[in-house]
């Protein structure tokens, strides 16, 4: 009896400790978001008060209208959406097919090629930045969306690894049964593998969306025309306006820009978490 009571006490203590850690971590993570929301609703003069006020005396919702009209937000939103969804489609198509080859097809040197693909993840992007820019410059792709979209149709090492790990958890007997029925490799991929990999595909889609939507360096390097800028570049235009940084307008615009990522993750978090967990079960 005493042993059972002691065990229950230890379980309660452990659960209480875990909950406390989670609550504290959540508060630490949410503080910047709350500060961004608070700043976006402040008057211009309130932004620079010291000590700072966490809750504005009056909520200035007009800051959102000022922020979105200061720049051609609609035009930049369309540009960002085109790049993001094209990138997401390219990543899903290419990475899923390449991962299927590494997971299911038997060929000499397959594992070596897979290691070479993974090794590209260890190369910092800063090293290849200049050669890649020179290549796109020679192709006359600068100041277009092509350098930001087309490379994604040739596969992404991380996505290939993620999907390959998921494919490895699917029993190979399903492929053998489909072959007996006369199904080709492409038919197995489209009719059996893809329907079973929705969580992994959702994970890839979420990652691709967030990386492309929030990408700053790529558009900064390749886009020059004002009408072709993305939202991440547009946010930098708030720096130095009126002789100083309009932090309240910048925070208001940042909230609007970040909203699609919050919404996407909120509705797809179940698939996202399931995809991350399952892809780590089998090597």
Throw out a few tags for this protein:
single chain; 283 residues; MetI-like fold; 2 domains; 13 helices; 70% helix; flat
CATH class of the largest domain: Mainly Alpha
What is the helix content?
over 70%
Overall 3D form:
flat
| Tally of helical segments | 13
Main β-sheet description? none
Low-pLDDT runs of 5+ residues are none
Rounded average pLDDT:
83
The overall number of domains is 2
How many beta-strand elements? 0
Q: Structural class of the helices, strands and pairings?
A: mainly alpha
Q: What is the CATH superfamily classification of the largest domain?
A: MetI-like
Order of helices and strands: HHHHHHHHHHHHH
CA(first)-CA(last) distance? 44 Å
What is the rounded Rg? 24 Å
Strand content: under 5%
The CATH architecture term of the largest domain is: Orthogonal Bundle
Explain what you see:
The protein has 283 residues and is mainly α. It folds into two domains: 39 residues; 207 residues, Orthogonal Bundle (MetI-like fold). The protein contains 13 helices and no strands. α2 crosses α13 and α3 runs antiparallel to α10. The mean pLDDT is 83.
Concise overview:
By secondary structure, the chain is mostly helical.
Question: Could you give the topology of this structure?
Answer:
Elements: H1 2-40, H2 62-70, H3 73-104, H4 110-119, H5 125-138, H6 146-149, H7 157-168, H8 173-180, H9 185-196, H10 198-213, H11 217-222, H12 231-235, H13 247-278
């Amino acid at each position: 009896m005493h042993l059972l009571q002691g065990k229950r006490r230890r379980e309660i203590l452990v659960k209480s400790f875990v909950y406390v850690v989670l609550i504290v971590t959540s508060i630490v993570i949410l503080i910047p978001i709350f500060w961004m929301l608070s700043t976006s609703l402040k008057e211009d003069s309130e932004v620079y008060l010291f000590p700072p006020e966490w809750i504005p005396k009056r909520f200035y919702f007009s800051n959102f209208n000022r922020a979105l009209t200061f720049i051609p937000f609609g035009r930049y939103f369309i540009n960002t959406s085109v790049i993001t969804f094209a990138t997401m489609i390219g990543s899903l198509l290419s990475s899923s097919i390449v991962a299927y080859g590494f997971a299911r097809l038997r060929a000499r040197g397959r594992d070596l090629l897979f290691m070479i693909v993974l090794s590209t993840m260890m190369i910092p992007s800063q090293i290849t930045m200049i050669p890649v820019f020179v290549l796109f410059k020679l192709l006359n792709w600068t100041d277009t969306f092509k350098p930001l979209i087309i490379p994604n149709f040739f596969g992404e090492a991380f996505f290939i690894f993620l999907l390959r790990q998921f494919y490895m958890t699917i029993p190979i007997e399903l492929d053998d049964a489909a072959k007996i029925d006369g199904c080709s490799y492409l038919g197995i991929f489209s009719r059996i593998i893809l329907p079973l990999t929705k969580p992994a595909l959702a994970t890839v889609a979420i990652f691709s969306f967030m990386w492309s939507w929030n990408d700053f360096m790529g558009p900064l390097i390749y886009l020059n025309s004002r009408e072709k800028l993305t939202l991440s570049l547009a946010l930098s235009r708030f720096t130095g306006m009126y002789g100083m940084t309009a932090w309240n307008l910048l925070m208001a615009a940042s909230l609007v820009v970040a909203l699609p990522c919050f919404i996407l993750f909120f509705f797809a978090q179940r698939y996202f978490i399931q995809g991350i967990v399952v892809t780590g079960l089998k090597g």
